[in-house]
Amino acid sequence: MAVSRMSKGAREIIAEMHAMISALCSMDSIIDEGMSDVERSAKLSQGAFLATKQNCDDRGLYTMWEIILSMSWVILCHLFELLSAVV
């Protein structure tokens, strides 16, 4: 019932985010168990960026949410790298 009340734009954003999360989950199979935390976070950051870029390239445009989501992943992964280097 809540889904039927959503605007078309909101449903599209949720579908796009679901596609990006699915792409990230498929990246998990590429990640080797022997990788360090820094290598793992770099691989996930790269996967998040590539998934967002591919999704945007398919449509030929970037929405504000896609830019924010892509940059958030990159920033979070870099923060994780810094924290793992300190600890």
Task: Describe the structure in your own words.
The protein is mainly α and 87 residues long. It has one domain. It has 4 helices and no strands. The protein is elongated and about 45 Å long. The termini are far apart. The mean pLDDT is 64.
Concise synopsis of the structure shown:
The chain crosses the membrane at residues 67-86. Helices cover 82% and strands 0% of the residues.
Regions with little confidence, pLDDT below 50 for 5+ residues = none
The H-and-E topology, N to C, reads as HHHH
Q: Quick one: overall form?
A: elongated
The tally of domains stands at 1
Number of continuous helical runs: 4
* Average pLDDT, all residues: 64
End-to-end CA span? 46 Å
- Assign the structural class, choosing from mainly alpha, mainly beta, alpha/beta, alpha+beta, or little secondary structure: mainly alpha
Radius of gyration: 15 Å
Helix content: over 70%
Give the strand content: under 5%
- DSSP, total strands: 0
Largest sheet: none
Any chance you could write out the topology, listing elements then pairs?
Blueprint lengths: L1 H4 L2 H21 L8 H23 L4 H23 L1
Helix pairs in contact: 2-3, 3-4
